[in-house]
Amino acid sequence: MILYYVRHGDPIYEPDSLTPLGQRQAEAVGRRLGTRGLNRIYASSSNRAILTATPASEITQKPIEILDWCNEQYTARSMMDIDPKTGTYTWCFNIDHHRRLFNRADVRALGMQWYRHEAFAALPFEKEVLRVEREADAFLLSLGYRHDRESCLYEPVAPTNERIALFAHQGFGLLFLSVLLDIPYPLLCTHTDITRSSVSVIEFIPRDGIVIPRMISMSNEGHLYKENLPTFI
User: Fold this and answer.
1) Domain contains 105
2) Quick one: which of 68, 167, 174, 219 has the fewest CB in 10 Å?
């Protein structure tokens, strides 16, 4: 199985939609994925994610299946904080204080249970991490792969050659990819990013009776280069 994780295009947050550039990005990523063929298309219940998925759905003639648990509004409630420098509410990975904490040796030593560090005791990180772990594991099991969190492996209970696309968000996506790949969130969110309309590709290939998902491309903007659209870099 190949899983494509796609962040929505350039957004209008109020009301929830896409800018004209975001719509062009959606059309570009739709053409990109459409040429590869998709077996299933999923999207967050956010309108900007659904609009980004729509061109791919039209090209491939596959319906968009809505996953409300991927909506970023839930993750934002737990994984954001006040930046003391600006006084604004933002993602924890954008705040210097948290970025430093996330990369401390004693936080790293806790691995996937990083949220149990005393520095995060007053923050609701744990509840959201466990929610996304639970939902992500159920989603992957529905696709044929059972997650064994103790060994950080997947059991291919019903492996397929399907190509699956999930259209969602940046803040949610960094947490989702963390729990999917068994990479501690503090490392993933401070050392990587997901740009608008970019495509991250994860392969689930059984070897010796197990699956260790591999990220073979992250935050790729090749479709934007092809269409001569602005890119992040």
Assistant:
1) yes
2) 68
